[in-house]
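Revision sheet: C-alpha cells.
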Amino acid sequence: MTTPEFWIGVRQFLIRKDVPQALFSVGVTALCFLLGSAALQWLYASKIATKPIIITSLIIFTALVLASVVFFAMKASLKFHIALSEKMDKIVEFSHAMKSLGLLELNDQIAYIIKQEIPLYVSSVPILNDYLEDATVKRYVFLMNKEKIKYYKGDNRLCIRAATYEQMVQELAKEISALESAAVAQKEIEINALTDTLAKTVAQADKLREDNEKLRNICKTQSGRETAIDNSSIRRVVFWRVAGPLVNALCEQGSRERPYTRTDIQAAFDVAVEEFPDLKEEIKQLLLAGKAVQPSEDKKPKSKSEFDLNGWAMEAIREGLGDLAKRGGGRNPKR
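Predicted:
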C-alpha cells in the first residue's frame, strides 16, 4: 500500500513540472479537435454540405492544427540553447562589464547590448572572477528571454569577449572625453561672459562713485551757500522792516523827472529809522557788518549818518525804486 507521503510527493512533482497545465492544454485541444470532426461528420450525414466542402474543411482544419503544433514546437524549442562551442583567449563576466559601463538595471543592460549589437556568450563554467582566460563558450542569441538571461547571469556564466569589452570601454571613454570637453568649453564661455559683465559692472560702479563724489561736493557747496543766504536773509529782516515801508512811500511821492539821489535815499532812511527805536542798534550792526565801499565811491566824502547805506543796503533800496532812482550824474533841482 502506498503511504500518504507518496501521494503528497507525487502531487508536488506534478505541480512543480506544470503537468496539470500541460494535461489541461492537451485535453482542451483534443476536445476541440473531436468537436470539429463531429461537426463535419454531422454536416456530411445531414447532406447540408457536399463531400468536396467536407474535404476542404478537413484540409483547412488540419492545416490550422499543424500550424498550432508548429508554433508551440518553435516556442518550446527556444527553451533549449543549442549552439556550437568555441575557444576564447579571454572573456569578461557580463555583470562586471555592465557595471563598469554604468549600467546597473537589467533592462538598461539588454537595451544597450541590442543597440550596440554586442554578441553575448555563455561560458561552460561559472566565471568566479571578473575575467576568465582560455574559456569554452557558446553564442547566446535569445536576448528577449529575460528569464534565461537572469539565469545565466545569476550563474555567472553570461560573458562578453574581452576585445569587445575593451572596445566598449574605449568608446565610452571617448564619449566621456567629448562631453567633458564640451562642458569645459561651455564653462569657459560662461566665465568669459561673467568676466565681461563683471568688468562692465565695475566700470559702472566706478563711474557712479565718481558721480556721487561730485554730487556730494556740489551738495556741500550748495548747502553752504544756501545756509549763508538763509542766514543773511534772516539777519536782513530787521533792515526791511524799515526799508520796505520807506520804498513804498518814496514810490508814491517821487517822479521820473526828479529821481532820488543817494543823498535823498540816505536822508529819507535816517528819518524812517527813527520810527523804530528798538531796531536801531540791530540795524546799525547789520549795516556795519555788510558794508562794502564801491570803487567809484572812494573819492566821495563818507556819510556822516550812523546808518550809512553804502553797499548792499543802498543798492537794495535803489533796486526797489527802479526808474525813480537816479542812474546818471548831475544834480536834481531842489525838491
